[in-house]
Design brief:
There is one protein chain. By secondary structure, this protein is of the alpha+beta class. It folds into 2 domains: 76 residues, Arc Repressor Mutant, subunit A; 51 residues, Ferric-uptake regulator, C-terminal dimerisarion domain (Dna Ligase, domain 1, 2-Layer Sandwich), CATH 3.30.1490. It is built from 5 helices and 5 strands.
Length: 141
């Protein structure tokens, strides 16, 4: 943050700590709640200003599943951008599955047009068979 000329404040530190404590996808509003549990002075505006900085810096990965609300997940050390996202339409959970073919695919199709891939994503929307049969989802927390 200091490289962008931004001060490191207690609010931003709380947002950072709250984001990196998460193991599942979260929204900006959820991050606000998590950060306020650390520092109750964290403002909504600071969260919404800090999220783009964290995504541009590759600290967080932004996930858009087409619902109008963005989700975020920390880029942990050793995490790969070669993942496929599976969105359960029944429990609204986002799963990330290793998809090592993504690098090959992105390079192959881009090279045919003399382009260099920058980003790519694969998303699958799915239904939970158990949810439809029993009304309960073993993955829902």
């Amino acid at each position: 943050m200091t490289q962008k000329g931004l001060r490191v404040t207690n609010q931003r530190l709380a947002i950072f700590d709250a984001a990196f404590a998460q193991r599942e996808h979260f929204t900006a509003e959820q991050l606000l709640d998590y950060a306020r549990a650390i520092d109750d002075s964290v403002s909504r505006a600071t969260v919404y200003r800090t999220l783009p900085i964290m995504t541009e810096s590759n600290l967080l990965r932004e996930v858009d599943i087409g619902t109008g609300e963005k989700f975020y997940l920390p880029n942990q050390e050793g995490s790969s951008n070669q993942v496929a996202q599976v969105i359960c339409l029944d429990c609204d959970k986002i799963f990330e599955i290793s998809a090592p073919f993504m690098g090959w695919y992105g390079n192959s199709v881009s090279q045919k047009l003399n382009l260099t891939p920058v980003t790519q994503r694969l998303q699958v929307s799915a239904r939970c068979d158990q949810w439809r049969q029993t009304g309960t989802c073993p993955r829902r927390s």
